[in-house]
């Protein structure tokens, strides 16, 4: 069965707290990770929380990358969802793990849009 997309749910631990609490740097690294994976970036939106933490999304032509950070725990929750064959979501996850100076990353890949029977696409 072919899937429409691949969705990586990554748990990134032991990260540099200063990086995880820097909105501008998180945005830069997230955009770089999308490009590293071969994606085409469309939009970005990031928010810095008080007293700490950053959440954000990078919208790509192929879907999205999202992040939520807990600097006080050295932890980042990351989603990388890509459609098509051009972009490798694992490249983005590995890039993020390296740039966050993480000690450990675990991840699960979920196939999205898996149809057991042929689907007729409607003309819209």
Task: Quickly name the level 1 CATH class.
Answer: Alpha Beta
Shape descriptor reads: elongated
The computed structural class is alpha+beta
Rounded radius of gyration (Å): 15 Å
What fraction of the residues are assigned to beta strands by DSSP? 35-45%
Query: Total strand count, please?
Result: 6
Task: Report the major sheet.
Answer: 6 strands, antiparallel
**Number of continuous helical runs:** 3
At the fourth level of CATH, the homologous superfamily is S-adenosylmethionine decarboxylase
Integer tally of domains: 1
Helix content: 10-25%
Strand order in the sheet with the most strands: 2-3-4-5-1-6
Q: Can you walk me through this structure?
A:
There is one protein chain. The model has no long low-confidence stretch (mean pLDDT 94). The protein is built from 3 helices and 6 strands, in the order βααββββαβ. With 124 residues, it is α+β, with helices and mostly antiparallel strands. It has a 6-stranded antiparallel sheet, covered by helices on one side. β2 and β3 form a beta hairpin. The two termini are 25 Å apart. It has a single domain, classed as 4-Layer Sandwich (S-adenosylmethionine decarboxylase).
